[in-house]
Amino acid sequence: MNSQETIVVLGAGESGVGAAILAKSKGFNVFVSDKGQITSNYIKILNEYEIPFEEGKHSEERIIEATEVIKSPGIPDTAPLIKKLNSLNIPVISEIEFAGRYSDAKMICITGSNGKTTTTLLIYHMLKKAGINVGLAGNVGHSLARQVAENNYSHYVVELSSFQLDGMQQFKADIAILMNITPDHLDRYDYKMENYIDSKFRIIQNQTENDAFIFCQDDEIITKELKQISIQVQKHPFSIYECLPKGASLRDEDLIIKNENINLNMKQKDLSLKGKHNIYNSMAAGIAGSILGIRNDVIRESLSDFEGVEHRLEKLVNVRGVDFINDSKATNINSTWYALESMNDKTVWIVGGVDKGNDYSELMDLVKEKVKAIVCLGLDNSKIHAAFDGVINSIVDAESMPDAVKKAFELADEEATVLLSPACASFDLFKSYEDRGNQFKDEVRKL
């Protein structure tokens, strides 16, 4: 590596700061540029590592001097600065791509429109229980790049969004997991579903016949795509409808996992995570554990004592007969479909935020069956009203979380459930889905 080579990092969040630390540790000249304001904790870290940075702007004349640019997954390829870099043939990659160059660890990578965080944390839980030296990275945990710089893990469990996958070129997953593909982030993909599908299937790029691909056999988009491409990787499907000779299936009340290493049976009732969507998550995690050679008893124990994910169908408290459930992590239609499907009737549904091209008609049957009232929580609720006005008698608007919780509680009655499952991104009123969920929990506690 030439000491005169310069890495510019665009974005100074967890991903960007981690990439900067790794680049500095490998002897590159490093410069970090963030168009917004950098939080104080990341400013402190950059100063500790003596990494120069700027905030509130992108100094183009300095950025285009880069040998290579690492960009935040939140910056789209259509951004003018990225287009300029591409026109100058300056490589633009992701933090994950950069980190992968400097690690020989086994990479277990998970993507999908829904369920990827739960599955990622479940696999991490399993590997920790098995005594494996494992790191947690990507969309959850700490930056992969910073962990590669500062730790020596033998395995990483990495949750990958489509945005992160888009910036990967040579990175390879040893075990790739694709949970499902449903319309999401279409605003980022020219509203073309095929572009989003291509992005998700980058999870298997560079895999060989020695690697593993775990996927949902019940997902029509995935199975259709697999018929159209040729891959050498070892396939491990999972299904709740078909009895498969390899992978994971249901038979009567048993979850069955089969491959060259194990033949595992487990009672469905013993799974810690309930609901159809969580059976899929448990199947994918169980297959991954079996491929890694984890003992059956450890896999069973892990699938039975995992405690779930904050902001994903998180049961809160019962207030005077009304249950409250925090599903703030549901940022698309499919996630909310699973949430509504798991509800009993008499549900007050809090929905809304930044729409990503939602088709609410996909929820219509469930809404008619389960929902007694809707609270629209967003700056623009017109699409929700257009979909459900006349279908649900009680639809009200709220422009803050205190207002939404108050109105939802008033609309509920004894034995009803208030469900926050927005089906939208959070950035109109909140910093993140975590902020939205935490505000919801705070307001519920005040009732």
UniProtKB/TrEMBL annotation:
<dbReference type="GO" id="GO:0005524">
    <property type="term" value="F:ATP binding"/>
</dbReference>
<protein>
    <recommendedName>
        <fullName>UDP-N-acetylmuramoylalanine--D-glutamate ligase</fullName>
        <ecNumber>6.3.2.9</ecNumber>
    </recommendedName>
</protein>
<dbReference type="Pfam" id="PF08245">
    <property type="entry name" value="Mur_ligase_M"/>
</dbReference>
<dbReference type="GO" id="GO:0051301">
    <property type="term" value="P:cell division"/>
</dbReference>
<keyword id="KW-0131">Cell cycle</keyword>
<keyword id="KW-0133">Cell shape</keyword>
<comment type="pathway">
    <text>Cell wall biogenesis; peptidoglycan biosynthesis.</text>
</comment>
<dbReference type="InterPro" id="IPR005762">
    <property type="entry name" value="MurD"/>
</dbReference>
<dbReference type="InterPro" id="IPR013221">
    <property type="entry name" value="Mur_ligase_cen"/>
</dbReference>
<keyword id="KW-0436">Ligase</keyword>
<comment type="similarity">
    <text>Belongs to the MurCDEF family.</text>
</comment>
<dbReference type="InterPro" id="IPR004101">
    <property type="entry name" value="Mur_ligase_C"/>
</dbReference>
<dbReference type="GO" id="GO:0008360">
    <property type="term" value="P:regulation of cell shape"/>
</dbReference>
<comment type="function">
    <text>Cell wall formation. Catalyzes the addition of glutamate to the nucleotide precursor UDP-N-acetylmuramoyl-L-alanine (UMA).</text>
</comment>
<dbReference type="GO" id="GO:0008764">
    <property type="term" value="F:UDP-N-acetylmuramoylalanine-D-glutamate ligase activity"/>
</dbReference>
<dbReference type="Pfam" id="PF21799">
    <property type="entry name" value="MurD-like_N"/>
</dbReference>
<dbReference type="InterPro" id="IPR036615">
    <property type="entry name" value="Mur_ligase_C_dom_sf"/>
</dbReference>
<keyword id="KW-0547">Nucleotide-binding</keyword>
<dbReference type="Pfam" id="PF02875">
    <property type="entry name" value="Mur_ligase_C"/>
</dbReference>
<keyword id="KW-0573">Peptidoglycan synthesis</keyword>
<dbReference type="GO" id="GO:0005737">
    <property type="term" value="C:cytoplasm"/>
</dbReference>
<keyword id="KW-0132">Cell division</keyword>
<dbReference type="GO" id="GO:0009252">
    <property type="term" value="P:peptidoglycan biosynthetic process"/>
</dbReference>
<feature type="domain" description="Mur ligase central">
    <location>
        <begin position="110"/>
        <end position="288"/>
    </location>
</feature>
<feature type="binding site">
    <location>
        <begin position="112"/>
        <end position="118"/>
    </location>
    <ligand>
        <name>ATP</name>
    </ligand>
</feature>
<keyword id="KW-0963">Cytoplasm</keyword>
<dbReference type="InterPro" id="IPR036565">
    <property type="entry name" value="Mur-like_cat_sf"/>
</dbReference>
<dbReference type="GO" id="GO:0071555">
    <property type="term" value="P:cell wall organization"/>
</dbReference>
<feature type="domain" description="Mur ligase C-terminal">
    <location>
        <begin position="311"/>
        <end position="424"/>
    </location>
</feature>
<keyword id="KW-0961">Cell wall biogenesis/degradation</keyword>
<keyword id="KW-0067">ATP-binding</keyword>
